[in-house]
Amino acid sequence: MKYALGIDIGSTATKAVIMTSEGKIAASAVVSIGTGTAGPKKALMEVLDKAGLDRDQITWTTATGYGRFSLEGADDQKSELSCHAKGVSYLMPGTHTIIDIGGQDIKVMSINDRGGLVNFVMNDKCAAGTGRFLDTMARVLNVEVTDLSDLSEKADEVAEISSTCTVFAESEVISKLSTNIKIENIVAGIHQSVAKRVTSLLKRCGIKETIAMSGGVALNKGLVKALENEAGCKIHVHEECQLAGALGAALYAMENTKKAS
């Protein structure tokens, strides 16, 4: 049995997947710290431990993500665009549009039936609408970012956040808190603000059914619902959405493993 490793080193989290030569996932790991930290090493140790393997039993390692060039011992590197496309296509065959909200950027991709990248647009010049934006808003509200989903579902109206700039939006949220607007309604407004930002990218890329969301932010059901309302279409989310990039990298690694043998 041969094994391939894919590791997605993001700005805020590290994900790793080991695949067998039979195309099955042997183990996976998610560590909530990313590039420039001990995150990649921890994710690597955790996924190897879960699979019951040593590093020298891995035939090929492909790294992706923001910190992909920092992983010592990687056999090659692939862009996160290609890896998310391949990973989502594996998890949800028939997907043609992918939304990935990362820690520092937003990516919308069009892919073909084989998981190949056809077109993409990115918002990588500003933190508005990114995972970092949500982290900042959660800090201002004095809640955990993982609480945002449940809070927005309890909203009875949407407190509109008009600014798309993270700094101005932060001031706007503070202003709304000072006028005793419910936190739940503010969170709903934050989600709506992100949804508008993402929908504008969706329209630029071209909306082609089926639409799926990848990455850890996709686990925020409140945001997904806001995005569905704004875009006017169903957004599919797989339970392993956070692993999409690492899974795509592992699939590329397995292809190289087969070529090498």
Could you explain how this protein is built, in words?
The protein is α/β, with parallel strands linked by helices. It has 2 domains: 3-85 and 243-260, Nucleotidyltransferase, domain 5 (2-Layer Sandwich), CATH 3.30.420; 94-237, Nucleotidyltransferase, domain 5. Helix content is 41%, strand content 20%. The chain has 8 helices and 9 strands. It has helices at 39-51, 80-91, 131-141, 148-153, 166-178, 183-205, 221-231, 244-260; strands spanning 3-9, 14-20, 25-31, 58-64, 76-77, 97-101, 106-111, 117-123, 211-214. The strands form 2 sheets. The protein has a 5-stranded mixed beta sheet. Strands 8-7-6-9 form a 4-stranded mixed beta sheet. A hairpin with a 4-residue loop joins β6 (97-101) and β7. It starts with a strand and ends with a helix. The mean pLDDT is 93.
